[in-house]
Amino acid sequence: MKNTIINVGRQFGSGGGFVAKAIGRKLGIPVYDNELISKAAEESGYSKSVFEGGEKRKSLFSMSSFFASGRLPFGESSGYINDDMLFKIQSDVIRNIAEKGNAIIVGRCADYILRDLDCLDVFVCAPMEFRVQRLVKNEGLDPEEAEELMRRKDRTREAYYNFYTFGAWGVASNYDLCVDSSILGIEGTADFIIDFGRRAGKIR
Length: 204
Hints:
- This protein is an alpha/beta fold and 204 residues long.
- The chain has helices spanning 16-27, 34-43, 48-51, 83-100, 110-113, 128-139, 143-165, 181-199, and strands spanning 5-10, 31-32, 61-62, 80-81, 103-106, 120-125, 177-180.
- It has one domain (5-199): P-loop containing nucleotide triphosphate hydrolases (Rossmann fold).
- The protein is built from 8 helices and 7 strands.
- The radius of gyration is 18 Å and the shape is globular.
């Protein structure tokens, strides 16, 4: 039996992460966000800290810090790992998650990494005013701070996605479904995605 894999891309402030968790709760499927992807990487022998903030890194890392043990493989005593190498390892971790069982994966270019599998690829968006209001309410920011944070986060996610996938982040043709979370709310959006996924034969 094929695993149910749902990949969720999202605009910052749209509540896409909460939608993913609601879907996971309703279907009984684990949700892999930044924290759990890092944990999965750590269980594979990689340092959790290296995977944190993976959508915004642009630097070199000491290879010794890349492994949880702090020791280099094959007896090497020096070396560095760059973003491309990190993305390759991250891709392997995500593929391993998808192969092990049902999963909902948030961000991290999962739709591209798993493009050869029969996944449900979703993008959650919302109008700017709605997202600003959510950030003001949930993060305690003033509207100007919320809008600046939202724009900065979206630029970072777009640059990361476009660089590694050669695609266009948030463009409808890249996904099975794009949905505005402001219309139905978190729970309603989750229900809508589940219904769509079942009708499309993507949720088993």
